[in-house]
Design brief:
5-stranded mixed sheet, disordered N terminus, 8 helices, mainly beta, 804 residues, Maltoporin, Chain A
């Protein structure tokens, strides 16, 4: 931590000196170019319930990213664009990890994806129905799918980099991402973006050129008057071809030399999304508001290949082997509405929101080997459904206490109902067919066996919360804010959290700020009840192996207990400073999380006679389950610096340097959830190192925005420190290496309405370190999929936009 702080101080001092000593130009009336992080005077609503507060005045760090900034790059994935902009956010691109290939989780400050709360217009967003159970970053989490909302529907994104459970409830341990929808009663815009990868793939076994991943994105929005209010409609269509960065297959005796039989890369995607946001003034100063969104996403990724000599290959169907595909259809629905106005001197807001994510799985280009040549090749593999209803009321009021600013008191009530379902697939997707007596044959559809009837669940729970928050001006320069929140869940009971924040202005342009807060994350229904099993043969009998709920008799026989909430303690201290066109913020943090929920390793009956005696009565060969018990400490520093340089002859320049230095240490592991002696490994080395080294310790983004008359350009360089994709031994760990990714974009506006942009992401075709041949006997993993910037190489694109 000392070394990290020294590096941060060096970066901060150098940046301040560089920007502050730059020549000061006379400000002009022309609007400055959009920056990666907007001006400190930008009004924010996240992390505070005080109206009219700017980023400079906040008691905790908040990044504000505009839609224009998100769109000035090649990717049209919202989550990827946001991660390129906010250094504390990471969005890896997992592959060959089943549904996680399609529903990718993002992480803030290296913590679990479900430890960041996502809001839409200040209202809790529903999570995905998917729980990540394979070897990706965020294993064991059920996170919000950020890509379910297109950037064209947004006005801006506010990222609160501070614990906020006392203000917003469960999940806000790492911070809060608040998506602010566009509000317009007139005007509109549309764009068409086309791009693809032009890259040289250098893997351990050779080199090849690829031109793939062709992507077409068509998006638009229109503002309409709704009486004296507004109705803003946004829509987007995206079609993306898959990419493949697997290595060459190392078995020329089975497949032709130089063959790439696997597919490691982005899935094939076709999706369309529509959003509407509306507000209408009512009588007596009240306003009705609401929004609704719908997305349909069809994606298809690949599993591991089955060569012709694989025992589960059926030559009568696939004489040359086969590559199973995993298809995911995601239907995402959200709708919200409310009224706000003044009630007995209080600013009141009453609202209700509902969200639902429905995932349907299919397994294509596959077979169930226990049916032999009669096997289907396409399977309905079942589905997952998660629903969330949120309703509540908030009240706030300012009280004159003789200071420049009033004392603001806020309070509110919130209720939440959650539902979760697992739906079985067709029998052939999970059954053992006529050849099922052959113990060497796997059950179900190859690549992704379907959910069985025994896996089906239909559960729900309720939660209720009350909070009080006060923002107090102690002097004209010193503010103090505090919040307390009580929540009660129908499944595990109550939780109490608190937060205390302060800010002191040494001068009008220099201030110190600090917060201390307790936080929590409730165990999700997905973690509590997810189950997926496969049938195998044991002593001539069909038994099951897989994931079981912690509350099930099978898991509890092995020592599992009902899940409890995670607890956190957040400490943050920092400063903000502005001098003319330069501004700087530096914030250090420490996050202690206790009793985190994790997915155990598979406990097999072969481990010991005691395990066999416990599992055999249930007809189970091996079981894993979710459990509490992982403790971590995360320390880090965020630095954001910006300098604006307007010139008469050369145009306007906007320089931004943003960095995150982060370190996480696992301090305790589950050791008491098992009644077994000896105790099997419940949480392996690879899981520990995934938490500690699965995201960058350092991420630094430097960007320059330039505009002159009709011309504009953006250049961006992002540095990522080495990331480890761990194994059970250090010798088998995969490293991404230290990498710097450079992106450029040039723009020309033909008229006030028509503009063209051409750019290249990853100009120098940078890749993470390839997987050594000795660790890649199948040829599947060409590169570590933990890479925080992906592993697809150079991407060129063009974007034609129209505004009216």
């Amino acid at each position: 931590m000392t070394r990290t702080l020294r590096n941060v101080l060096t970066v901060s001092a150098s940046t301040a000196a560089l920007f502050a000593l730059a020549p000061q130009a006379e400000a002009r009336t022309q609007q400055p170019p959009t920056s990666e992080v907007t001006a400190l005077d930008e009004i924010i609503v996240t992390g505070t319930r005080v109206q009219g507060r700017s980023r400079f005045e906040t008691l905790a760090p908040v990044d504000v990213v505009t839609t224009e900034t998100l769109q000035q790059r090649g990717t049209t994935e919202f989550a990827a664009a946001l991660a390129q902009t906010v250094p504390a956010l990471s969005f890896p691109r997992p592959s060959v990890t089943d549904g996680t290939d399609s529903i990718r989780p993002a992480t803030l400050r290296g913590l679990s994806p479900d430890q960041t709360l996502v809001l839409v217009n200040g209202v809790r967003r529903h999570a995905s129905a998917l729980v990540n159970v394979n070897g990706s970053v965020g294993r064991g989490s059920a996170a919000v799918d950020l890509n379910a909302i297109p950037s064209t529907a947004l006005d801006r994104v506010e990222v609160l980099r501070d614990g906020a459970s006392a203000q917003y409830g469960s999940d806000a341990i790492a911070g809060v991402v608040n998506l602010r929808l566009r509000e317009a009663a007139s005007g509109g815009g549309a764009s068409v973006t086309y791009g693809q990868y032009f890259t040289t793939v250098e893997t351990a076994r050779g080199e090849r050129d690829e031109e793939d991943g062709q992507t077409v994105t068509v998006s638009g929005w229109q503002g309409l008057p709704l009486g004296d209010g507004y109705l803003t409609i946004s829509a987007e269509y995206l079609q993306r071809d898959p990419t493949n960065r697997s290595d060459f297959d190392p078995n020329p005796s089975v497949v032709p030399p130089g063959s790439v039989t696997a597919r490691l890369g982005d899935p094939e995607v076709e999706q369309w999304t529509v959003f509407a946001n509306a507000g209408v003034p009512l009588s007596a100063g009240w306003e009705a508001y609401g929004w609704a969104g719908y997305q349909d996403r069809e994606s298809e990724s690949a599993a591991f290949p089955r060569r012709p000599d694989n025992v589960n290959s059926v030559p009568a169907i696939y004489p040359n082997g086969f590559l199973p595909k995993i298809g995911v259809n995601s239907e995402d629905v959200s709708v919200a509405g409310g009224v706000r106005g003044e009630l007995a001197g209080w600013n009141a807001d009453f609202r209700v929101a509902y969200g639902r994510n429905d995932l349907s799985f299919r397994t294509e280009d596959s077979l169930n080997s226990t049916y032999g040549a009669a096997s289907p090749t396409s399977f309905d593999s079942g589905g997952l459904i998660y629903g969330q209803l949120v309703y509540g009321a908030e009240f706030s009021r300012g009280f004159d206490v003789g200071r420049i600013d009033p004392l603001t008191l806020s309070w509110g009530l919130e209720g939440r109902r959650e539902t979760y379902e697992i739906i079985a697939g067709q029998p052939e997707s999970y059954n053992r067919g006529p050849l099922g007596g052959n113990t060497s044959l796997a059950s179900g559809a190859q690549g992704f066996p379907g959910f069985q009837p025994s896996n089906e669940v239909d559960v729900d729970r309720d939660a209720f919360a009350a909070f009080v928050e006060a923002d107090i001006p102690l002097t004209d320069r010193w503010r103090l804010a505090g919040a307390v929140r009580a929540e009660d869940y129908s499944d595990f009971g109550g939780v109490f959290t608190g937060k205390l924040s302060t800010r002191y202005e040494l001068t009008p342009d220099f201030a110190l700020r600090a917060t201390v807060s307790s936080g929590f994350r409730a165990p999700s229904l997905q973690q509590q009840y997810f189950t997926s099993t496969a049938s195998v043969i044991q002593d001539g009998n069909i038994v099951e192996t897989g994931t079981f709920p912690a509350s099930s008799p099978i898991a509890q026989a092995l020592g599992a207990r009902d899940l409890e909430p995670e607890k956190a303690l957040n400490l943050t201290a920092g400063l903000v400073w502005r001098a003319g066109n330069f501004d700087l913020s530096v914030d250090a943090y420490r996050i202690e999380i206790d009793n985190q929920i994790a997915l155990s390793e598979l406990i097999n009956r072969s481990f010991s006679p005691q395990v066999a005696a416990l599992l055999d009565p249930f007809g189970v060969q091996a079981a894993r389950f979710f459990l509490n018990g992982v403790d971590t400490v995360t320390e880090g520093v965020d630095v954001v610096a910006r300098y604006r340089l307007p010139t008469e002859a050369a145009g306007d320049f906007d320089f931004t340097l943003a960095a995150n230095f982060n370190d996480t240490e696992v301090t305790a592991l589950p050791d008491s959830s098992s009644v077994l002696d000896p105790v099997p490994v419940l949480f392996s080395r690879s899981r520990v190192e995934s938490i500690q080294q699965g995201t960058p310790d350092s991420k630094i983004v430097f960007s320059t925005n330039w505009s002159l008359n009709q011309w504009g350009a953006t250049a961006r360089a992002a540095y990522y420190s080495d990331v480890v994709q761990p194994s059970n031994t250090p010798a088998n760990d995969l490293h991404t290496g230290d990498n710097t990714i450079v992106d450029i974009e040039g723009r020309y506006r033909f008229t006030d309405r028509v503009a063209l942009a051409i750019g290249v992401d990853n100009v120098f075709d940078q890749y993470p370190d390839f997987v050594p041949a000795a660790l890649n006997s199948s040829g599947v993993l060409g590169f570590p999929f933990y890479s925080p910037f992906g592993f697809n190489g150079r991407y060129a694109y063009a974007r034609l936009s129209l505004n009216w």
